Amino acid sequence: MSEKSNEMPADILNLSSYTVTGIDENEHDYRIEASVTKTLSGCIHCFQNTIRGFGRREQLIKDLPMHGKRVGIYVDTRRYQCLNCNKTFYEPLPDVDEKRKMTKRLVDWIGKQAISRTFASLAEEVGIVEGTVRSIFRDCINELEKTVRFEIPQWMGIDEIHLIKPRCVVSNTRNNTIVEILKDRNKTTVTRYLCRLKGLDQVHYVAMDMWRPYRDAVETVIPDAQIVIDKFHVVRMANDALERVRKSLREPLTPKQRRGLVNDRFVLLKRERDLSDKEVFLLDGWCRNYPELGLAYRQKEDFYGIYEAKSPAEAKAKFNTWLRALTPEIGDAFNDLASAWQNWEPYICNYFNHPVTNAYTESLNNLIRVMNRLGRGYSFEALRAKILFSEGTFKTEKKRPKFQRKQAEKVAGRFIGYSLMTDVPDFMRRSTDDQSTEGVKNYGVDISIITAMIKEGLI
User: Fold this and answer.
1) Does the reported pTM lie above 0.85?
2) Which helix (H) or strand (E) holds 6?
3) If you classify domain 155-227+357-367 with CATH, what class do you get?
4) How are beta strands 3-5 and 18-25 bridged, if at all?
5) What distances in angstroms separate CA 303 from CA 238, 342, 361, one per listed residue?
6) Cα–Cα–Cα angle for 197, 111, 58, nearest 5°?
7) What is the domain partition of the chain in residue ranges?
8) Is 245:292 a contact under the CB 8 Å cutoff?
9) Which of 51, 131, 180, 334 could form a disulfide with 80 if both were Cys (CB 3.0 to 4.6 A apart)?
10) Residues with Cβ < 8 Å from 421, sequence gap 6 or more?
Protein backbone atom coordinates (compact mmCIF):
# COMPACT_ATOMS: atom_id res chain seq x y z
CA MET A 1 0.00 0.00 0.00
CA SER A 2 1.30 3.42 -0.88
CA GLU A 3 1.59 6.33 1.49
CA LYS A 4 0.70 9.82 0.35
CA SER A 5 1.68 12.99 2.15
CA ASN A 6 0.00 16.36 1.69
CA GLU A 7 2.93 18.20 3.20
CA MET A 8 6.36 17.61 1.83
CA PRO A 9 9.66 19.45 1.74
CA ALA A 10 9.86 21.75 -1.26
CA ASP A 11 13.43 20.65 -1.97
CA ILE A 12 12.82 16.89 -1.93
CA LEU A 13 14.16 16.77 -5.50
CA ASN A 14 16.77 19.46 -4.96
CA LEU A 15 15.94 20.73 -8.45
CA SER A 16 15.07 24.43 -8.40
CA SER A 17 13.61 24.19 -11.90
CA TYR A 18 10.69 22.12 -10.64
CA THR A 19 7.91 22.63 -8.10
CA VAL A 20 6.83 19.46 -6.30
CA THR A 21 3.05 19.17 -6.16
CA GLY A 22 2.64 15.69 -4.72
CA ILE A 23 4.45 12.57 -3.62
CA ASP A 24 3.38 8.96 -3.50
CA GLU A 25 5.59 6.23 -2.05
CA ASN A 26 5.52 2.45 -1.84
CA GLU A 27 7.98 -0.27 -0.88
CA HIS A 28 10.13 0.17 -3.97
CA ASP A 29 9.35 3.53 -5.61
CA TYR A 30 8.81 7.23 -5.14
CA ARG A 31 6.21 8.80 -7.45
CA ILE A 32 6.84 12.55 -7.36
CA GLU A 33 4.42 14.86 -9.12
CA ALA A 34 5.93 18.14 -10.27
CA SER A 35 5.63 21.01 -12.71
CA VAL A 36 8.16 23.32 -14.31
CA THR A 37 8.68 26.30 -12.02
CA LYS A 38 9.26 28.92 -14.69
CA THR A 39 6.49 29.32 -17.25
CA LEU A 40 7.34 29.86 -20.89
CA SER A 41 6.97 33.43 -22.18
CA GLY A 42 7.61 33.06 -25.90
CA CYS A 43 7.56 30.67 -28.85
CA ILE A 44 10.56 28.36 -29.06
CA HIS A 45 10.41 28.53 -32.87
CA CYS A 46 9.86 32.18 -33.82
CA PHE A 47 10.63 33.66 -30.37
CA GLN A 48 7.52 35.86 -30.46
CA ASN A 49 5.49 36.46 -27.31
CA THR A 50 2.32 35.20 -28.98
CA ILE A 51 1.64 31.86 -27.32
CA ARG A 52 -1.41 30.44 -25.60
CA GLY A 53 -2.12 27.30 -23.62
CA PHE A 54 -3.09 24.31 -25.77
CA GLY A 55 -3.46 21.43 -23.32
CA ARG A 56 -1.25 19.36 -21.01
CA ARG A 57 0.24 15.92 -20.72
CA GLU A 58 2.08 13.99 -18.02
CA GLN A 59 5.68 12.87 -18.72
CA LEU A 60 7.65 10.39 -16.64
CA ILE A 61 11.24 11.46 -15.98
CA LYS A 62 13.58 9.06 -14.14
CA ASP A 63 15.77 10.55 -11.40
CA LEU A 64 18.45 9.46 -8.94
CA PRO A 65 17.38 6.71 -6.51
CA MET A 66 16.48 8.10 -3.10
CA HIS A 67 16.39 6.33 0.29
CA GLY A 68 16.95 3.01 -1.46
CA LYS A 69 13.95 3.51 -3.74
CA ARG A 70 13.56 4.25 -7.43
CA VAL A 71 12.40 7.76 -8.26
CA GLY A 72 10.02 8.77 -11.02
CA ILE A 73 9.12 12.43 -11.59
CA TYR A 74 5.73 12.81 -13.22
CA VAL A 75 5.89 16.25 -14.82
CA ASP A 76 2.65 18.01 -15.68
CA THR A 77 3.91 19.43 -18.96
CA ARG A 78 2.19 22.38 -20.61
CA ARG A 79 1.44 22.43 -24.33
CA TYR A 80 1.41 25.72 -26.25
CA GLN A 81 0.32 27.08 -29.62
CA CYS A 82 1.99 30.09 -31.23
CA LEU A 83 -0.46 32.52 -32.80
CA ASN A 84 2.31 33.95 -34.97
CA CYS A 85 3.78 30.81 -36.62
CA ASN A 86 0.84 28.52 -35.74
CA LYS A 87 3.15 25.81 -34.42
CA THR A 88 2.35 23.74 -31.34
CA PHE A 89 4.94 22.51 -28.86
CA TYR A 90 5.48 21.35 -25.30
CA GLU A 91 7.44 23.43 -22.84
CA PRO A 92 11.11 22.36 -22.59
CA LEU A 93 11.96 20.37 -19.45
CA PRO A 94 15.04 21.81 -17.71
CA ASP A 95 17.73 19.50 -16.24
CA VAL A 96 16.52 16.63 -18.44
CA ASP A 97 18.88 14.73 -20.75
CA GLU A 98 18.34 15.52 -24.43
CA LYS A 99 18.47 11.86 -25.50
CA ARG A 100 16.61 10.16 -22.68
CA LYS A 101 13.66 10.78 -20.37
CA MET A 102 15.82 11.09 -17.27
CA THR A 103 17.56 13.89 -15.42
CA LYS A 104 21.06 14.90 -16.44
CA ARG A 105 22.36 14.11 -12.97
CA LEU A 106 21.01 10.57 -13.25
CA VAL A 107 22.77 10.13 -16.59
CA ASP A 108 26.04 11.38 -15.10
CA TRP A 109 25.65 9.10 -12.07
CA ILE A 110 24.92 6.01 -14.19
CA GLY A 111 27.91 6.73 -16.41
CA LYS A 112 30.28 6.87 -13.44
CA GLN A 113 28.74 3.92 -11.60
CA ALA A 114 28.79 1.71 -14.70
CA ILE A 115 32.59 1.69 -14.65
CA SER A 116 32.66 -0.16 -11.33
CA ARG A 117 29.27 -1.93 -11.32
CA THR A 118 27.35 -4.31 -13.54
CA PHE A 119 24.83 -2.90 -15.98
CA ALA A 120 22.14 -5.24 -14.67
CA SER A 121 22.48 -4.05 -11.07
CA LEU A 122 22.23 -0.40 -12.13
CA ALA A 123 19.21 -1.08 -14.33
CA GLU A 124 17.46 -2.78 -11.41
CA GLU A 125 18.30 0.02 -8.96
CA VAL A 126 17.11 2.83 -11.24
CA GLY A 127 14.20 1.03 -12.87
CA ILE A 128 15.31 1.07 -16.50
CA VAL A 129 16.35 -1.57 -19.03
CA GLU A 130 19.93 -2.78 -19.22
CA GLY A 131 20.30 -1.53 -22.79
CA THR A 132 19.78 2.04 -21.60
CA VAL A 133 22.59 1.66 -19.06
CA ARG A 134 24.83 0.30 -21.78
CA SER A 135 24.01 3.25 -24.05
CA ILE A 136 24.73 5.78 -21.28
CA PHE A 137 27.95 4.00 -20.46
CA ARG A 138 29.08 4.17 -24.08
CA ASP A 139 28.40 7.92 -24.22
CA CYS A 140 30.26 8.43 -20.93
CA ILE A 141 33.32 6.57 -22.20
CA ASN A 142 33.31 8.60 -25.41
CA GLU A 143 33.43 11.78 -23.32
CA LEU A 144 36.20 10.40 -21.12
CA GLU A 145 38.19 9.55 -24.22
CA LYS A 146 38.13 13.24 -25.12
CA THR A 147 39.17 14.52 -21.71
CA VAL A 148 41.58 11.92 -20.24
CA ARG A 149 45.04 12.23 -21.76
CA PHE A 150 47.98 10.05 -20.78
CA GLU A 151 51.58 11.13 -21.24
CA ILE A 152 53.42 9.64 -24.21
CA PRO A 153 55.82 7.11 -22.62
CA GLN A 154 59.50 7.58 -23.32
CA TRP A 155 59.88 3.88 -22.59
CA MET A 156 56.89 2.23 -24.22
CA GLY A 157 55.88 -1.35 -23.58
CA ILE A 158 53.71 -3.41 -25.92
CA ASP A 159 52.34 -6.64 -24.51
CA GLU A 160 49.17 -8.74 -24.43
CA ILE A 161 46.36 -9.31 -21.98
CA HIS A 162 43.64 -11.91 -22.48
CA LEU A 163 40.22 -10.27 -22.23
CA ILE A 164 37.89 -12.72 -23.99
CA LYS A 165 40.67 -12.95 -26.60
CA PRO A 166 44.25 -11.57 -26.83
CA ARG A 167 44.37 -7.75 -26.72
CA CYS A 168 47.31 -5.44 -27.18
CA VAL A 169 48.32 -3.50 -24.06
CA VAL A 170 50.38 -0.32 -24.39
CA SER A 171 52.20 0.66 -21.22
CA ASN A 172 54.61 3.14 -19.71
CA THR A 173 57.37 0.85 -18.49
CA ARG A 174 59.15 3.51 -16.43
CA ASN A 175 56.03 4.19 -14.37
CA ASN A 176 54.48 0.71 -14.33
CA THR A 177 51.23 1.98 -15.87
CA ILE A 178 48.82 1.06 -18.65
CA VAL A 179 47.97 3.77 -21.17
CA GLU A 180 45.80 1.89 -23.67
CA ILE A 181 44.17 -1.48 -24.39
CA LEU A 182 43.43 -2.18 -28.05
CA LYS A 183 40.68 -4.44 -29.39
CA ASP A 184 43.21 -6.90 -30.85
CA ARG A 185 46.92 -7.23 -31.54
CA ASN A 186 46.89 -6.98 -35.33
CA LYS A 187 49.35 -4.78 -37.16
CA THR A 188 46.59 -2.58 -38.59
CA THR A 189 45.12 -1.90 -35.16
CA VAL A 190 48.48 -1.15 -33.54
CA THR A 191 49.58 1.05 -36.46
CA ARG A 192 46.33 3.02 -36.40
CA TYR A 193 46.70 3.65 -32.66
CA LEU A 194 50.31 4.80 -32.93
CA CYS A 195 49.48 7.12 -35.83
CA ARG A 196 46.88 8.91 -33.67
CA LEU A 197 49.42 9.77 -30.96
CA LYS A 198 51.05 13.17 -30.81
CA GLY A 199 54.64 13.59 -29.67
CA LEU A 200 55.95 10.22 -30.86
CA ASP A 201 59.41 11.78 -31.07
CA GLN A 202 59.46 11.40 -27.27
CA VAL A 203 59.39 7.59 -27.56
CA HIS A 204 62.98 6.39 -27.28
CA TYR A 205 62.57 2.67 -26.60
CA VAL A 206 59.83 0.14 -27.18
CA ALA A 207 59.92 -3.13 -25.22
CA MET A 208 57.87 -5.96 -26.73
CA ASP A 209 57.69 -9.69 -27.20
CA MET A 210 58.55 -11.48 -30.45
CA TRP A 211 55.28 -10.74 -32.24
CA ARG A 212 56.00 -9.55 -35.77
CA PRO A 213 52.97 -7.21 -36.13
CA TYR A 214 54.22 -5.18 -33.16
CA ARG A 215 57.67 -4.82 -34.66
CA ASP A 216 56.34 -3.88 -38.10
CA ALA A 217 53.93 -1.30 -36.67
CA VAL A 218 56.64 0.37 -34.56
CA GLU A 219 59.19 0.43 -37.38
CA THR A 220 56.59 1.98 -39.68
CA VAL A 221 55.32 4.70 -37.34
CA ILE A 222 58.25 5.29 -34.94
CA PRO A 223 61.34 4.43 -37.01
CA ASP A 224 63.71 6.26 -34.65
CA ALA A 225 62.67 4.26 -31.58
CA GLN A 226 64.90 1.39 -30.47
CA ILE A 227 63.00 -1.92 -30.33
CA VAL A 228 64.04 -4.08 -27.39
CA ILE A 229 62.77 -7.62 -27.06
CA ASP A 230 61.67 -8.06 -23.49
CA LYS A 231 64.13 -10.21 -21.56
CA PHE A 232 61.38 -12.07 -19.73
CA HIS A 233 59.76 -13.25 -22.95
CA VAL A 234 63.06 -14.71 -24.11
CA VAL A 235 64.10 -16.50 -20.92
CA ARG A 236 60.56 -17.82 -20.54
CA MET A 237 61.19 -19.83 -23.70
CA ALA A 238 64.11 -21.52 -21.92
CA ASN A 239 61.74 -22.49 -19.11
CA ASP A 240 59.23 -23.78 -21.65
CA ALA A 241 61.92 -25.94 -23.29
CA LEU A 242 62.88 -27.39 -19.91
CA GLU A 243 59.22 -28.13 -19.25
CA ARG A 244 58.95 -30.07 -22.52
CA VAL A 245 61.90 -32.25 -21.52
CA ARG A 246 60.50 -32.81 -18.03
CA LYS A 247 57.06 -33.83 -19.30
CA SER A 248 58.45 -36.16 -21.95
CA LEU A 249 60.55 -37.90 -19.29
CA ARG A 250 57.65 -38.28 -16.86
CA GLU A 251 55.25 -39.72 -19.42
CA PRO A 252 56.60 -43.32 -19.54
CA LEU A 253 57.38 -43.51 -15.81
CA THR A 254 55.50 -45.71 -13.37
CA PRO A 255 53.48 -44.10 -10.55
CA LYS A 256 56.23 -45.08 -8.10
CA GLN A 257 58.92 -43.42 -10.24
CA ARG A 258 56.80 -40.28 -10.59
CA ARG A 259 56.48 -40.02 -6.83
CA GLY A 260 60.26 -39.71 -6.75
CA LEU A 261 59.91 -36.54 -8.80
CA VAL A 262 57.51 -34.74 -6.46
CA ASN A 263 57.78 -30.94 -6.87
CA ASP A 264 60.19 -31.39 -9.76
CA ARG A 265 58.62 -28.57 -11.79
CA PHE A 266 58.90 -26.11 -8.91
CA VAL A 267 62.57 -26.98 -8.31
CA LEU A 268 63.60 -27.09 -11.96
CA LEU A 269 62.18 -23.67 -12.76
CA LYS A 270 64.11 -22.03 -9.93
CA ARG A 271 67.49 -20.47 -10.60
CA GLU A 272 70.41 -22.53 -9.35
CA ARG A 273 71.57 -19.77 -7.03
CA ASP A 274 68.14 -19.70 -5.33
CA LEU A 275 67.95 -23.42 -4.51
CA SER A 276 67.90 -24.51 -0.89
CA ASP A 277 70.21 -27.29 0.35
CA LYS A 278 67.33 -29.78 0.19
CA GLU A 279 66.46 -28.72 -3.36
CA VAL A 280 70.10 -29.03 -4.44
CA PHE A 281 70.14 -32.57 -3.06
CA LEU A 282 66.91 -33.50 -4.87
CA LEU A 283 68.07 -31.95 -8.14
CA ASP A 284 71.38 -33.79 -7.97
CA GLY A 285 69.56 -37.11 -7.58
CA TRP A 286 67.17 -36.40 -10.44
CA CYS A 287 70.02 -35.43 -12.76
CA ARG A 288 71.91 -38.67 -12.01
CA ASN A 289 68.82 -40.81 -12.59
CA TYR A 290 67.62 -38.86 -15.62
CA PRO A 291 70.66 -37.41 -17.46
CA GLU A 292 68.50 -35.66 -20.07
CA LEU A 293 66.81 -33.72 -17.29
CA GLY A 294 70.22 -32.64 -16.00
CA LEU A 295 71.29 -31.52 -19.48
CA ALA A 296 68.09 -29.53 -19.97
CA TYR A 297 68.44 -27.83 -16.58
CA ARG A 298 72.05 -26.89 -17.35
CA GLN A 299 71.04 -25.47 -20.74
CA LYS A 300 68.34 -23.41 -19.10
CA GLU A 301 70.76 -22.01 -16.53
CA ASP A 302 73.41 -21.29 -19.15
CA PHE A 303 70.87 -19.42 -21.24
CA TYR A 304 69.99 -17.23 -18.26
CA GLY A 305 73.72 -16.57 -18.00
CA ILE A 306 73.70 -14.92 -21.42
CA TYR A 307 71.83 -12.00 -19.86
CA GLU A 308 74.77 -11.32 -17.58
CA ALA A 309 76.70 -10.10 -20.63
CA LYS A 310 77.85 -6.47 -20.64
CA SER A 311 77.54 -5.85 -24.38
CA PRO A 312 75.76 -7.20 -27.48
CA ALA A 313 79.01 -8.73 -28.74
CA GLU A 314 79.53 -10.64 -25.49
CA ALA A 315 75.90 -11.79 -25.54
CA LYS A 316 76.25 -13.11 -29.10
CA ALA A 317 79.42 -14.98 -28.15
CA LYS A 318 77.73 -16.54 -25.13
CA PHE A 319 74.75 -17.57 -27.24
CA ASN A 320 76.98 -19.25 -29.83
CA THR A 321 78.73 -21.15 -27.05
CA TRP A 322 75.34 -22.12 -25.61
CA LEU A 323 74.10 -23.27 -29.04
CA ARG A 324 77.14 -25.49 -29.61
CA ALA A 325 76.56 -27.15 -26.24
CA LEU A 326 73.08 -28.37 -27.26
CA THR A 327 73.04 -32.17 -27.48
CA PRO A 328 70.76 -34.23 -29.76
CA GLU A 329 68.89 -35.60 -26.73
CA ILE A 330 67.43 -32.20 -25.86
CA GLY A 331 68.00 -30.28 -29.10
CA ASP A 332 64.39 -30.58 -30.29
CA ALA A 333 63.06 -29.10 -27.06
CA PHE A 334 65.30 -26.01 -27.37
CA ASN A 335 64.94 -25.53 -31.15
CA ASP A 336 62.22 -22.89 -30.81
CA LEU A 337 64.40 -20.83 -28.48
CA ALA A 338 67.44 -21.11 -30.73
CA SER A 339 65.42 -20.12 -33.81
CA ALA A 340 63.80 -17.19 -32.00
CA TRP A 341 67.18 -15.80 -30.96
CA GLN A 342 68.61 -16.13 -34.47
CA ASN A 343 65.55 -14.53 -36.10
CA TRP A 344 65.32 -11.66 -33.61
CA GLU A 345 68.98 -11.29 -32.62
CA PRO A 346 69.42 -7.54 -33.38
CA TYR A 347 66.37 -6.65 -31.30
CA ILE A 348 67.22 -9.08 -28.50
CA CYS A 349 70.75 -7.72 -28.32
CA ASN A 350 69.48 -4.15 -28.07
CA TYR A 351 68.72 -5.06 -24.46
CA PHE A 352 72.42 -5.14 -23.65
CA ASN A 353 72.80 -1.51 -24.72
CA HIS A 354 69.43 -0.38 -23.41
CA PRO A 355 68.19 -2.68 -20.60
CA VAL A 356 64.55 -1.70 -21.07
CA THR A 357 62.03 -4.30 -20.02
CA ASN A 358 58.39 -4.64 -19.16
CA ALA A 359 59.24 -4.88 -15.49
CA TYR A 360 55.53 -4.94 -14.67
CA THR A 361 55.18 -8.45 -16.21
CA GLU A 362 54.21 -10.17 -12.96
CA SER A 363 51.80 -7.38 -12.05
CA LEU A 364 50.24 -7.67 -15.50
CA ASN A 365 49.89 -11.43 -15.04
CA ASN A 366 48.06 -10.79 -11.77
CA LEU A 367 45.79 -8.34 -13.57
CA ILE A 368 45.11 -10.91 -16.28
CA ARG A 369 44.06 -13.48 -13.69
CA VAL A 370 41.66 -11.20 -11.83
CA MET A 371 40.26 -9.75 -15.06
CA ASN A 372 39.53 -13.26 -16.32
CA ARG A 373 37.37 -13.80 -13.23
CA LEU A 374 35.77 -10.37 -13.53
CA GLY A 375 35.31 -10.64 -17.28
CA ARG A 376 32.48 -13.15 -17.36
CA GLY A 377 29.47 -11.46 -18.89
CA TYR A 378 31.22 -8.20 -19.80
CA SER A 379 32.01 -6.88 -23.24
CA PHE A 380 35.55 -5.87 -24.14
CA GLU A 381 34.53 -2.21 -24.17
CA ALA A 382 33.25 -2.46 -20.60
CA LEU A 383 36.36 -4.27 -19.37
CA ARG A 384 38.63 -1.76 -21.09
CA ALA A 385 36.78 1.13 -19.48
CA LYS A 386 36.94 -0.49 -16.05
CA ILE A 387 40.72 -0.70 -16.37
CA LEU A 388 41.45 2.66 -17.98
CA PHE A 389 38.95 5.01 -16.36
CA SER A 390 38.31 3.83 -12.79
CA GLU A 391 38.71 6.65 -10.28
CA GLY A 392 41.75 6.61 -8.04
CA THR A 393 43.93 4.48 -10.31
CA PHE A 394 45.89 7.14 -12.21
CA LYS A 395 49.55 7.77 -11.46
CA THR A 396 50.04 11.52 -11.71
CA GLU A 397 52.80 14.00 -11.13
CA LYS A 398 52.76 17.77 -10.73
CA LYS A 399 55.36 20.17 -11.97
CA ARG A 400 56.55 22.62 -9.36
CA PRO A 401 57.42 26.26 -9.60
CA LYS A 402 61.16 26.88 -9.51
CA PHE A 403 61.29 28.26 -5.96
CA GLN A 404 59.56 25.16 -4.63
CA ARG A 405 61.92 22.85 -6.47
CA LYS A 406 64.78 24.42 -4.55
CA GLN A 407 62.93 23.98 -1.27
CA ALA A 408 62.22 20.34 -2.09
CA GLU A 409 65.88 19.71 -2.89
CA LYS A 410 66.88 21.04 0.51
CA VAL A 411 64.30 18.94 2.34
CA ALA A 412 64.57 15.69 0.41
CA GLY A 413 67.83 15.97 -1.50
CA ARG A 414 66.27 14.26 -4.48
CA PHE A 415 63.72 14.56 -7.32
CA ILE A 416 65.57 17.44 -8.98
CA GLY A 417 63.15 19.41 -11.14
CA TYR A 418 60.11 17.22 -10.53
CA SER A 419 58.69 15.31 -7.61
CA LEU A 420 55.76 13.01 -7.05
CA MET A 421 53.24 14.82 -4.91
CA THR A 422 52.70 11.73 -2.75
CA ASP A 423 56.27 12.14 -1.50
CA VAL A 424 55.96 15.82 -0.62
CA PRO A 425 55.42 16.95 2.99
CA ASP A 426 51.92 18.30 3.68
CA PHE A 427 53.02 21.92 4.11
CA MET A 428 54.78 21.83 0.73
CA ARG A 429 51.80 20.18 -0.96
CA ARG A 430 49.50 22.94 0.25
CA SER A 431 51.97 25.58 -0.84
CA THR A 432 52.24 24.10 -4.30
CA ASP A 433 48.48 23.81 -4.71
CA ASP A 434 47.88 27.37 -3.50
CA GLN A 435 50.49 29.09 -5.64
CA SER A 436 49.74 27.23 -8.87
CA THR A 437 51.74 24.75 -10.91
CA GLU A 438 52.48 24.28 -14.55
CA GLY A 439 50.07 21.34 -14.88
CA VAL A 440 49.60 17.69 -14.02
CA LYS A 441 51.12 14.77 -15.86
CA ASN A 442 48.97 11.65 -16.07
CA TYR A 443 51.15 8.60 -16.72
CA GLY A 444 48.26 6.16 -16.95
CA VAL A 445 46.66 3.48 -14.80
CA ASP A 446 48.86 2.11 -12.02
CA ILE A 447 48.80 -1.66 -12.54
CA SER A 448 49.29 -2.54 -8.87
CA ILE A 449 46.45 -0.21 -7.79
CA ILE A 450 43.93 -1.42 -10.39
CA THR A 451 44.74 -5.05 -9.58
CA ALA A 452 44.26 -4.50 -5.84
CA MET A 453 40.94 -2.68 -6.41
CA ILE A 454 39.61 -5.51 -8.57
CA LYS A 455 40.65 -8.10 -5.99
CA GLU A 456 38.88 -6.13 -3.25
CA GLY A 457 35.70 -5.90 -5.30
CA LEU A 458 35.89 -2.12 -5.75
CA ILE A 459 35.62 -2.45 -9.53
Assistant:
1) no
2) none
3) alpha beta
4) antiparallel
5) 7, 14, 20
6) 135
7) 1-96, 97-147, 155-227+357-367, 231-352, 378-455
8) yes
9) 51
10) 396, 397, 398, 429, 432
